[in-house]
Amino acid sequence: MTFTIHDDLFAASTLTVHEQIGFELGWDYAHHGVLPPAPYAHEPSPLRDGLLAGQATFGQRTLQATRHVRKWLQLRLHAWLRGRSVELVQVTPRYLQSIDASHCPITRVSLSTATLEASDASVDRVCNGAGYAAGNLAVMSRKANHAKAAHGFRDALRIVHELELGNRDGIGGLNAAQWARVAVLCSFVEPLPHDEAAALPMLVLPPNRLRLFNPVQALQAFVSRQLLVPGWSQRLARIEALLPAKPARRAFQMFFHALLPRVLEAGRTDQPHEARWAVEDAWRNPLVMKRWTEFARALTPAQCEAIVTRAAARKLGTQHVEQVPETQATEGWQLESRGYVPHAVLMRRVPRGPIPHTPAQASLPL
Description:
The protein has helices spanning 17-31, 46-58, 67-82, 93-98, 142-148, 153-165, 176-187, 194-198, 215-225, 232-240, 246-264, 272-282, 286-297, 301-313, 326-329, and strands at 10-16, 121-125, 137-141, 345-351. It has a two-stranded antiparallel sheet with strand order 1-4. It has a two-stranded antiparallel sheet with strand order 2-3. Helices cover 45% and strands 7% of the residues. It folds into 3 domains: 8-83 and 344-355, no CATH class; 85-206 and 330-339, no CATH class; 212-323, no CATH class. The longest helix is centred in the C-terminal third of the chain and has 19 residues, at 246-264. Helix 1 packs antiparallel against helix 3 and helix 9 runs parallel beside helix 14. With 366 residues, it is mainly alpha-helical. The protein has 15 helices and 4 strands.
């Protein structure tokens, strides 16, 4: 047996998850030919290490930095600075493009881009106890996002009651009607008792790709969206035929005959956002809510889910409806750490001496 003695060019080193995420973020900045904002492009950090490594690797061979790519990088930077988790398998620039909006669902102002004004579009984690993950994101104005902050459904509901009983015009820059929309938006991603969810007005239609955890609200949104697309009368008749019994069909007819006139009162419009507002505002009518609650509470959650599933299978929806199994509904949300990056230390092998970064070091094992 022979032995060879040599210097170990590699030594074990520790790397935290936070550092790994920063390095990969810097790498992606370089891959798209974008510089992080000052001072992050210059101060020593894992992000700068990844940026320099990426620049050395890609040079001028970079990918196109579209508006949604820049938004994706900005979202990840802000999340990294706060220790928030970002699920990167589904949350991509294309995903952010798919959830984009022309108007804030809370304040209803036209959204701007990179003006540093309160109307600028921002991506909000609807469930504050989860990370930036598919199904938990909605685009709204900076003003609404900052006011909403860490508030959830119960908090927003309490603020609405406080404003309705008091003499204040608003809290956090939002009035009672706007806080009511915040409450409804948050209710979508919070499992609620069926009777409670059935008694909530649809003051804001669910933003694109937001996951709805309460089957009765999924049915409520499915029916409400019918009025946004021509041909609703025929579709609703077919949806009505899917209801479990004559009493439910009669209750549904009474509800819809209360809803429709309130939507028509707003007048015809070619603007999609104005059509949405007309439907949302119709839900403020007490008779509409009374009739809906009577109908919805006569159904079980399983029946609500079955109606939406069967209607979608018959292509009666105005949008694609995707059912996500409960085991996957919050995948990547990091609920166990309340949306923060778990504190963990990784092991890697790093070269000793002045050996430069290589592309292989950009993908470190989890």
